[in-house]
Design brief:
With 288 residues, the protein is an alpha/beta fold. 32% of the residues lie in helices and 12% in strands. It contains twelve helices and eight strands. α4 packs parallel to α12.
Amino acid sequence: MTKFMTKRIFLFVAALFLLLPMGAVAAVPLASHVFVVVEENHSYSSVVGSSSMPYLNSLIRRYGLATQYYADTHPSIGNYFMMTTGRIITNNDSFSGTTSTDNIVRHFLTAGKTWKSYAEGLRWTGYTGGDYLAYVKHHNPFAYFTDVANSTNERQNLVPFSQFGSDLANGRLPRYSFIVPNVLNDGHSGSLSRADYWLKTHIAPLISSPTFQNNGLLIIVFDESYSSDTSHGGGHVAAVAIGPRVKAGYKYPYLAQHQNLLRLTMEALGVTSYPGAGATANDMVGLF
């Protein structure tokens, strides 16, 4: 190899590193477990720094915050589908059918990863029916996937949130957990103070657990902003990354949306194929 060729290769490699966000590593670090908690219908400015959410803001100060995170659409259902299929699928919150679109479950099954959707107020394990009291189906996208609804085995991964504490205590957590508070506890129909209390009550024990401290990753994200904010489709929202390998107090300054969350959570579990827009989305590796 000539000196000229060696120099060109060196310059090419150096240029690649310059394209990475400051402080980024080459890949999202592998996580032992990944958790996604979805909150509802509040803007970034009403959450970050809010006295109504002291617990969530304590996590923001300690871990990582995506400062330019935007939902994809209004109303809710399209955002939940984007987090799990990489596509909006529908903007009809009353959608009552199923979808055979490529989705996160299909890729988990191929990669041999376990999963559960923990939905507060779900009537029973495997329930794929409609709304019941404070449980709303369109916040639980897994219940629409044919890969789940048509499978006796996969339906068993749709569980009431009341099972989460025992799964944590008894070492039965799956590799991926999608956590859905009911509409009184997620900020949708209740106050932000109530949502924050729910997080402190149920999520603080998770974060302090040995299971999570062994390279766990948790994302707490709002599905959409106020309906008046249509920036990037669904408005400016808060997304908080929590984990022992997240940069302490870091503010991630790059544009991100729910497809980036999809890519990040799958990549953290070592999955190498992604549905929909997850295939081309940035993985937010700069958080680590």
